[in-house]
Amino acid sequence: MWKHTFGWLSLWLVLVTLTGCDGSSQRGEGGVKKVQLLNVSYDPTREFYQEFNESFAAHWKATKNEEVYVEQSHGGAGKQARAVMDGLEADVITLALGYDIDVIAERTKLLPLDWQSKFPKNSAPYSSTIVFLVRKGNPKGIKDWADLEKEGIEIITPNPKTSGGARWNYLAAWGAALAKELGGIEGIRKATPEQRAAADKKARAFIESIFRKVPVLDSGARGATNSFVQRQLGDVLLTWENEAFLALKESGGDQVEVVVPKLSILAEPPVAVVDEYAKKHGTEEIAKAYLEHLYSPQGQQLAAKHFFRPNSAELISTEQMAKFAEVELFQLKDIWGSWAEAQKVHFDDGGIFDQIYQPK
Amino acid sequence: MSVENKHGIQDPLWVRWTLITITIGFVAIFLALPVAIIFAEALKDGWKTYAIALKDPAAWSAIHLTLLVTAISVPVNTLFGLAASWAIAKFEFRGKSLLLTLIDIPFAVSPVISGFIYVLLFGLQGWFGQTLSEWGFKVIFAVPGIVLVTIFVTFPFVARELIPLMQEQGNDEEQAAISLGAKGWQTFFYVTLPNIRWGLLYGVILCNARAMGEFGAVSVVSGSIRGKTATLPLHVEVLYNGFNVPAAFAMASLLALVGLLTLALKTYLEWKVKQQRRELALVNE
Amino acid sequence: MELTLHVSLGEGSCAKQPMSRKRSYSVLPGFGLTMGYTLTYLSLIVLIPLAALIVRAASMSLDQFWAAAFNPRVMASYRITFGTSLVAALVNSVFGFIVAWSLVRYRFVGRKLLDALIDLPFAIPTAVSGIALTAIYDKNGILGHTLFQWGIKSALSPLGICIALTFISLPFVVRTLQPALEEMDGESEEAAMCLGASRWETFRRVIFPALFPSLLTGFALAFARSLGEYGSVVFISGNLPMKTEITSLLIITKFEQHDHLGATAIAIVMLVASFAILMSINGLQWYLAKKLRG
Description:
The complex is a heterotrimer of chains A (about 350), B (about 280) and C (about 290).
Chain A lengths: L1 H18 L14 E8 L4 H19 L2 E8 L2 H9 L6 E3 L3 H10 L12 H4 L2 E10 L19 E2 L7 H19 L1 H7 L2 H20 L8 H9 L6 E5 H10 L5 E4 L3 E5 L3 E3 L1 H7 L2 H12 L1 H9 L3 E2 L7 H5 L5 E3 L1 H4 L3 H9 L4 H6 L3
Parallel strand pairs in A: 1-2, 1-3, 5-6, 8-11
Antiparallel strand pairs in A: 3-9, 4-6, 4-7, 4-8, 4-10
Helix pairs in contact in A: 2-13, 3-4, 6-7, 6-8
Chain B lengths: L12 H30 L5 H8 L1 H33 L6 H13 L2 H12 L6 H6 L8 H12 L1 H14 L2 H8 L4 H30 L2 H7 L9 H10 L3 H40 L1
Chain C lengths: L9 H7 L7 H4 L3 H28 L3 H9 L1 H34 L5 H7 L2 H4 L2 H12 L6 H6 L8 H26 L3 H8 L4 H30 L2 H7 L9 H10 L3 H34 L1
């Protein structure tokens, strides 16, 4: 019997080593040193970074003759930020909103408080906005934010507590309601406190009516897309513009269509080097170069290709830019001073989102 | 359908038929159907789903990681199981039932909590996290964390199989061996081990199945670093949540296959143990 | 079949050993070594991590703990988790009984195969069963399709959670009942029939009471298992706070929001509940053993 056991054990060991043989060695061909970077990102950027990482690896090999391998981790932005704080040793973080990176800077010493000034355009190499994804033919006729108030439809959005995209969705909806009440973005800027308070009440009712119609709360934007497209739940998905177009492309274009509302929020997902971890791994220079590559013509091209609005539009051809619809974009600071404030009022424990979910 | 009741009393025919039908129906719907659908979904587009899914290096990393984690946790827990059952079954001491209860704890703890307590220990904000990090050891969000958590979750399996078995077998043979001059280790290897071998294998198989399939606990500590800290069940989740449901089912079917193999082995071993017990009963008469 | 589920045998098992064992531990070597190893390993893997949880919980004030462990959203998750687990355990008690009865007492085509299949939920990873169950019971699933048309929401609802939990905890009832059923000899039944009892009366008054303790144990095990279940539920449930959010998911959510204290508080509540159930199972087993003895 022991012969058999020994035999099985060796088989097991062989299996383990064989399956581990590719991709985990640290030496590239010809004894060239291989550097590893960990990019902790938010949910919908998988496909983009897969291509971008190849582009960067080629670029780095050409300029510095070093092999670099970038590992990816994806998940809801809030969740990823917490993971980094708990010890996920990211060399760079590329999250959905600045607030999550602010929290990391404030609560740990992993990167400086002024991280956002380290890279151009507020450390946001591209921007995006929030749009709708509906079934082909738009049977429920959802064309703009006001249509979300219709009864009898189901809305898919991820959970604002864990997903960055969900928070952009929420604030976009809030802003749209405010704009409707106060007469556009200018109206919001010029409103008196009383007018604003009244409009906020209407906005809150609007948000409540939306969440009443949500049948499932995924933890990240990609999960929500999956629920809408794969599991065919809901009539409309609130999501990133890039995610909507990607879903359209992946599903073959005959099941869903993208509806861009006339007004939406400017979402600027920022990037940062996590200094302490980069220092520890000795990757400071390459991490910085990695993020800078996002601003390069190749980086911006790839961003546009994956439906992100590049921040250096001058580097992109006009036909590529044509696929982005005209949208009137308002910024977060137009409706709510800062992310810290918005987070406190809406998304922290006991905030408005929690209140919406309490029993009446 | 030949239906005899070995207890000698026949239930009326309609009762038997109804109950058997309910049994088959219930098992078919609740147990067989889920397994069938895994393979159905995986093979919906034929074998090429497998080909594409397996071309992904992340899939191989996931398989490798699952195998590695299992290869570590199962032997380690087996060793513990052997030691614990020797101490508990062959000796009398106070606090035995307390010890048995303590060993059973991982069964009572939800897998999510199991993962969480390890983060409390080894996360950056936890007891040992800061120190270990300074020394360059990564536990959470790295392979060691996954291994530890899997060990916790599969901890009792081997012990729980061996303890009652060894208790039933008693000390006679070991005592005989010792009185004939055998040393402790010799007694263990030549007397005890052959007696418990089927129970041992049984426990090892259960431990193995659970280790390969653990999901909740590993979710918490893994960090989902694609290609590095995703075990196969996590990889299935990632695929399912990506635009890749067929591949998710393809990978899931690999795990299901292992599960079915486990079942087959288990049935065989049960039969072997029953045989052994029958022999023991005959000898003891 | 007895091997699949040995619950801690507690006091009962010691009594099973015949009298001649009294001198055993002075003869056999290795007590110190194995005991030492056992205790060390146990402490390192199980006790210290759990201690971390308790210490972290203790660092909260009573008010904080109360607020974190019993606020409305958490209470809703308890209701959902305990409620669905209870339903699943009850369903499994009824059907599990029938299944165990048929497997032990009847012979039919495919019996051995069916018997082996019972352990499927043990062998299949929870994530795999999660996506499989979702594929069946979702709006477009093969069964869900029809169910939804009849107005039965078999996914994204507490019913969906019940279905998943029924799958997961099915083996517990069946495997606990099988040994008990096999051990029953026909004598008491035959005696009852001779004395004129009908088959049903025999069942109600002789057979069922004898099986009841095992049934209860199986029920409790199924219940305890369902409480902590995560992987097979999160795909089918919808995860809506207050409506279909189970407690284990809530712990993870709190953890992901960096609310470690909140997660700790909830975890403590769940641990206490699980231990209470484990204790009562042990007590039940001890009582069972006592009855057998005397």
